[in-house]
Prior knowledge:
This protein is 26% helix and 27% strand. With 448 residues, it is α/β, with parallel strands linked by helices. The protein has 3 domains: 1-39; 69-271, P-loop containing nucleotide triphosphate hydrolases (Rossmann fold, 3-Layer(aba) Sandwich), CATH 3.40.50; 277-447, Ribosomal Protein S5, domain 2 (2-Layer Sandwich), CATH 3.30.230.10. A hairpin with a 5-residue loop joins strand 9 (231-237) and strand 10. Helix 9 (326-339) packs across helix 10. The longest helix has 17 residues, at 186-202. The chain is globular, with a radius of gyration of 26 Å.
Amino acid sequence: MAKKNLRYECSNCGAIASSWTGRCQSCGEWNTLQEQLLVDSVSEATRGGTTLNPQSLKAATKSGKEPRLISGMQEVDNVLGGGFVAGSINLIAGQPGIGKSTLLLQLASLVAKEHSVLYVSGEESVHQVALRAERLQATSSKLQIVSSSSTDDIAATISSGNFKLVVVDSIQTVSLAAISSAAGSVSQITNSTHLLSMVAKQTNTALVLVGHVTKEGSIAGPKVLEHVVDVVLQLEGDRYGGFKLLRSIKNRFGSTNEAGIFEMQDNGLQPVDNPSAALLAERQVSDGSVVLATMEGTRPLLVEVQALVNRTSYGYPKRAASGIDLNRVNLLIAMLERRTKLNLADQDIYINVVGGIKISEPAADLAVCMAIASASKGMQLKQNAVVFGELGLSGEVRHVPFIDKRVAEAKKLGFDGAIGPAIRGAKKPNGLTTVATVRDALNSFLEN
């Protein structure tokens, strides 16, 4: 191993110190000095700098054309942009119990059908991992498992170059022997990630790291963890049911507009071929129910938006939302009161997006408003149609992307058409009924 140097860096101002002190001599902040381990190289470190040998971009492109590792799970390959890139560092995060370890053990087994794969667990014993592998039927002969929390041992194993894919579960449980702080601290996470990344890139090994999250849902540890890796994936959804969504937050090798949709079953996370049909299978047509045509990446998805409106029993009306931002709902309610004749000031309003799906795009505005109006007046949509469109504070319906895909998905599932905004500078697709304002939408398409 190369020579190691230890220094201390202030997390507030970035000042460097050779030894730890309680107070930073530069900015005066207390307890901000963090251990930083400097590793010169995985191989034998050179004493001094040498002249670099640049090559043309064309030559580098030809020499770097190594095929990706196909995981065998189409949903994951789409999110990654075509599979794992050799030498890439991939970070996957999600809530406890969401299915991170289950998904990665399935992927490791599928990749191991063609390549040698190592699964390193810092949280479980080999026996525990083997039991989960047996339940998932992940019994490929080229898949090897080991339990270790030593970053040094893991790095030495990767440096052998015997594996095409290595999974480390998780980065918060491994630690370097040269750093005295506990596993999961800022210095351990940062330096362990740097060392493993260096080894993986020098041996052209695809590395997957599992990351914990905080109670707010962000990835635990320093923000530099997300900067130094090549791909950041987030596994979202309800722990106890519903669909699980794999999103790409950062991807140096592909688009971040793709999303994989899975469902937890007895044999692990399984891709959902037709999520729209599954989400609408138990739908009952009634007041307060509107089908939204939303987008998960570049894939259209039909979900049911439900609203319940009751007269409040208290002085201050209650607003609650599941699957959509409550602040956005409050804004839309205020706009409805101002731009329409609906009186919602003394009404409790509850919004629910069925199936555990979380909607973040503005195209859900029109569907939410029509669901609220439908529940408030006891009315239903006149036609069997899906709804989408962004709303401004003046009540105008604004353009949203991928209108053609939304309308096509609605027709595929048996809807007569769609209600949405006009398409700018393009031919209107068959089945789309355009509306200019939310007031026009409510007056034209709601009936008793």
